[in-house]
Each structure stands twice: as structure tokens, then as C-alpha cells.
Amino acid sequence: MKEFWSSRIRDMVPYTPGEQPKDRTFIKLNTNENPYPPSPKVLETVRDAADAALRLYPDPEAGSLRDTLARYHGVSPEQVFVGNGSDEVLAFCFQAFFGPERPVCFPDISYSFYPVYAGLFAVPYEEIPLEEDFQIPVERFLDGNGGVILPNPNAPTGIALPLEQIRRLAEGNPDVAVIVDEAYVDFGTDSALTLLADHPNLLVVRTMSKSRSLAGMRVGYAVGSPNMIAALNCVKNSFNSYTLDRIALAAAKASVEDEAYFQETRHKIMATRERTAAALEGLGFSVCPSRANFLFVSHSSKGGKELLDGLREKGILVRWWGKPRIGDHLRITVGTDEEMDRLIEALAQLTGQA
Ligand SMILES: Cc1ncc(COP(=O)(O)O)c(C=O)c1O
């Protein structure tokens, strides 16, 4: 029953976010959240920001946060755009940079929001198949397309593309936007920020949801040439002047200012990831080489859905897509060491090794 629905959305299939359970307590390894809380300084800032000033609109230009991010990344504030989670920034990118003329390209196994945005904004798209080992075939993205968007490291594989390949993408598509979604870059991938000065068509999109433990605050940002940032502002200011509220602006700034906490937690997660990957390999899992805060794994004798259901019964949530080529894979977020010990034990039982 879709009476009154616009014909534009009647056939649309929206993105499905990972489950946020309400009925019981799970070990939640299904949405790539950070297992550690935000920095204590962020929490203190949030408490302080909840004051009478909330009656006033926030700064529509997010000046203070943009200045802080610009200093942190060594760019000018005109090169920084902030939004309500990187999902919103990515949605603005589709509107700002991709049009109906030529298809935008992204990998066939990638962030499943890209085809949804393409559908919503009527942008034609081409999904380029990954290689057998899930590597990105860069040369296939250089065919005179209408733009490129891809995560680095890729999701849900966790596999990183070396910077030289990102440079090839930017050089090989000089007339269109090349967007690098660096949602997971802080867990061990080289950032394309260093390429921005040479490539005015490159835009780097970041989030504070993963490495900065702020998924609940909804803060994302983009860094690129002033020209590309102006395009994003044009879309944003035609949509909503105040995409970030006062509390989110203050929390995000405080997070960038607590470098020590950021370094400590991201390194803990990378160490836990390596230990978990080795343990899972010991159980007969094949584990993609991950540079993210998750592992993409498959088992030689147990199917993906069977393991997903078995883990759920044991109180552990992970992510599974019943899609061609990856139906036997699970994406497992890296949690605390204790959570990973519980996961390893559960998978040992489910694969008959405990
Ligand atoms: C590749 C990728 N990009 C972007 C996002 C969106 O992050 P957020 O909207 O929380 O900033 C995610 C979230 O899971 C992601 O996996």
C-alpha cells in the first residue's frame, strides 16, 4: 500500500542498518561501533554544553569545529565540510558531484548505502566486480565514468588500497569527482589527505563514529579543495542550515583535541584485531587482511548464515549479507579483548573444535 507515495520512491529499497537490539543484552559486533567509550573529556564537554544556550540555533557554518579539524589535518577551514554523520556527507556528495549523464562507479562488494543514494538521487551507477580475492581492479575505474566513490579500506572486506592506487584513480578521472570514504582509515590505512594538494578532484570523507567512539553523536566530515567544499555547502544550504547541533559540535571538537585518548584506543583495537585474526585462522577461518575495526571471515566447513544464527543464540551479534560471493562470510566488529575471547570460544564450539 503505497498510496500518496511519490513515484520516485515507490520502488526504492532503503538501506538496512545493523540491528540495535532492545530486548536482551548481546555482545554487539554487528555495526562496527567502538567498544570503548568516548574520551572522558568529550563526556565532560557534552555535560557542559547542555545548558541554556540550547535555546539558540547552532553555528550554521560550524566554524569552531571546522577550524579545529583544519588545524589537525594541516589544511585551511575552507577545505573542511562537516555533516550529521558521514552518511549525510556521502548523500550530499551524490547530489553535489554525480549527475544523470554518466554512471558513478563503485565496487560491487562495498558500502551498501552507495546504490541506495544513487537510487534516491537518480544517479546511474555501475558496480565494478572485485577480483576473486576481493582486491579492487583499479584499471576498471578509469573508463570515462561519471565519478568514483569507494571506501578505503573497503567495507566489508577491510582490505586497503595503497595510496599509489588512489593517486591513479584521481589522475585517471581528471574531470570528475573521486571520493574516498575513509570511515575506517584510523585503524591502519594511509590517508589520501596527503594527495589532496595535487588532485583538486579528490575528496576525503571521514567519520567520528568509529575511531572516535562517537556513533551516537552523528558527526562526519569531508576534506578537499575549496571548490569541492563549496559544492557541498551549496547542497547543504539548500537542504538544512543546521545539520549539526550544539552538543555534537562541542563533542566533536573535544574529541579532536584529545589526541592521547584517540591514539590509545585505536591502537588497542588494532592489537585486538591482530590477535583475533590469528585465533580465527587457527580455527580454520579464512580471514581477509583487515586494516579496519572489523574482520571479514569465512569457514571451510560452516556456512555464513549457520554461524550467524549460532552466534546469535550464544548472545553475539555479527553481520551477514545473503548476497552472491559473500553469502558464506561474516563481518565481525573488533570489540574488547574479553568480547573477542567470548567470540573465539563460541566459534570454536560452532565449528566443533571445543
Ligand atoms: C564505509 C562506511 N562509510 C560510512 C559509514 C557511515 O558512518 P557514519 O554515518 O556513522 O559517519 C559507514 C558506517 O558503517 C561505513 O561503513
Characterize the structure shown:
It contains 10 helices and 12 strands. It has helices spanning 40-49, 63-73, 85-97, 113-120, 163-172, 226-236, 246-257, 259-282, 304-313, 337-350, and strands at 27-28, 80-83, 104-107, 125-128, 148-151, 178-181, 202-207, 220-224, 285-287, 294-299, 316-317, 329-333. Helix 1 packs antiparallel against helix 7 and helix 3 packs across helix 4. It is α/β, with parallel strands linked by helices. A 5-stranded mixed β-sheet has the order 2-8-7-6-5, sandwiched between helices. The chain has a 3-stranded antiparallel β-sheet with strand order 9-10-12, covered by helices on one side. Strands 1-11 form a two-stranded parallel sheet. Bound molecules: pyridoxal-5'-phosphate. Residues 32, 85-87, 111, 151, 155, 181, 183, 207, 209, 215, 220 line the site of pyridoxal-5'-phosphate. The site of pyridoxal-5'-phosphate has 13 residues, from helix 3.
